[in-house]
Amino acid sequence: MRHRLHQESNYYIAIGSKKAVKEVKPYLLEEESFAFALKVLQGIATDKAIEAIVEAYDELSKDEQAMALEALTFMLAEEAVPLLQQYEQSGHDPVFLDMTCYYYNAYRYYDVKHPKLEEWRDQFEEQEDAAAIERENARQELILRLKPGRNEKCICGSGKKFKKCCGAPYDEKLYVFS
């Protein structure tokens, strides 16, 4: 059955109909196919898909509930807000960046006050800043790897050493990644 769901997922997402939601909904309650079914319903993103996730919510494990909340907040489903509040009241906190971001977006989108709203925003911004620094560091590392050393063979393919070929005189404008 799971294989059938996998084969038909793009079809279900593309048509996004009530019938498609009805076909996928039972897979939410099967541990082996839960995550995949959730992603299909998230891709369909209709009111019926949201309803299917909400109806299955109480029967899910805490980990699955966290994934369902992530999907619902990603879909900006208003139904996510009371479920988020219930999830938090049961002693669970969004510990991953994605969950924090989704919590923040859901509460902000529906203008619901929460004492951690500004903290979540700050965490998200800090993570975004760190990710930007990491991307720049990776870019700089790539630049260093792409530039040949003076004694390496030239990148033009002449077989000469770089310092005797294109590197003499060295011109920064030759390198796209500089």
Describe the overall structure.
With 178 residues, this protein is mainly α. It has a domain at 1-122. It has helices at 2-15, 18-24, 34-44, 47-57, 62-74, 80-89, 97-109, 117-146. The longest helix has 30 residues, at 117-146. The chain starts with a helix and ends in a 32-residue tail after the last helix.
Q: What general outline do the C-alpha atoms trace?
A: elongated
Discrete helix count: 8
Q: What percent strand?
A: under 5%
- Largest sheet descriptor: none
Tell how many strands the DSSP assignment holds. 0
Helical content band: 55-70%
- CA gyration radius, whole angstroms: 25 Å
Q: What distance lies between the first and last C-alpha atoms, to the nearest angstrom?
A: 52 Å
Low-confidence stretches: none
| Sequence of secondary-structure elements | HHHHHHHH
The structure class reads mainly alpha
Quaternary state of this entry equals: single chain
Give the overall average pLDDT: 79
InterPro entries: SEC_C_motif (IPR004027)
Protein name: Preprotein translocase subunit SecA
